[in-house]
Design brief:
Elements (H helix, E strand, L loop, with lengths): L7 H5 L1 H28 L5 H12 L9 H14 L4 H19 L3 H33 L5 H63 L1
Helix pairs in contact: 2-6, 2-7, 3-4, 3-7, 4-5, 4-7, 5-7, 6-7
Membrane topology: Multi-pass membrane protein
Keywords: Cell membrane, Membrane, Protein transport, Transmembrane, Transmembrane helix, Transport
Pfam families: MotA_ExbB
């Protein structure tokens, strides 16, 4: 009775289909996890937000923040108020920015592995299914039934289709998230340059007094 509740393709596909089914669940979970983290990080950076970040850097005290850009601004403010030289501030911010970007890549490596492994797993299932189909054909001897071969091939190709179905969403999601992080890296470099210019202007204004 329990087996009647399992889809027929999941039974006929063998253990490879079960592995791909688990991989699809893991892939969906990873996509949702990375999407939630990137959404919370607010990776889009516009001019208004940039000005607010610069005001934080040059303000009396830094704000406690979790979003990557705000974390950089808060650290810059803290170091600036402590009298840290500008170049040392930039060095610390560069290290912190790299750490922030690497942290946002959590979960993406799993998507990359699934996108690469799922088609190969599907191909493996197809090869194993073809071997089994020709084995059954050999055992039939002269009593060859074309339905035996065609049915075995159908089951074998099922794993290839399943592998591609699992891999495509993971691959598309990985490229989307990777592009978002690349844009964030460019935005962080621009923000660091703006912070450097703002600190240099503050130093010049202070020395001119």
């Amino acid at each position: 009775m329990a087996m009647d509740l399992v889809p027929v393709w999941l039974v006929q596909g063998g253990w490879v289909i079960w592995i791909l089914a688990v991989g699809s669940v893991v892939s969906i979970a990873a996509i949702l996890y990375v999407f939630a983290r990137h959404s919370a990080a607010k990776l889009a950076l516009n001019s208004r937000r940039t000005e607010a970040l610069l005001a934080t850097v040059l303000g009396p005290e830094g704000n406690v923040a979790r979003a990557p850009y705000e974390v950089l601004a808060a650290m810059a403010s803290k170091l600036h108020r402590a009298g840290t030289p500008r170049q040392d501030i930039l060095d610390e911010l560069t290290i912190l920015a790299t750490e922030q970007l690497n942290d946002l890549r959590t979960g993406m490596r799993l998507l990359e592995v699934i996108a690469g492994a799922a088609p190969l797993m599907g191909l493996l299932g197809t090869v194993l299914g073809m071997i089994e189909a020709f084995k059954q054909l050999e055992m039939a001897g002269s009593q060859i039934d074309p339905s035996v071969l065609s049915g075995g091939i159908w089951q074998a190709l099922l794993t290839t289709a399943a592998g591609l179905i699992v891999a495509l969403p993971a691959l598309i999601a990985w490229h989307h998230f990777d592009r978002g992080l690349e844009n964030a890296r460019i935005a962080m470099n621009a923000l660091l340059a703006r912070i450097s210019n703002a600190l240099r202007a503050r130093e010049r204004a202070g020395s001119a007094r």
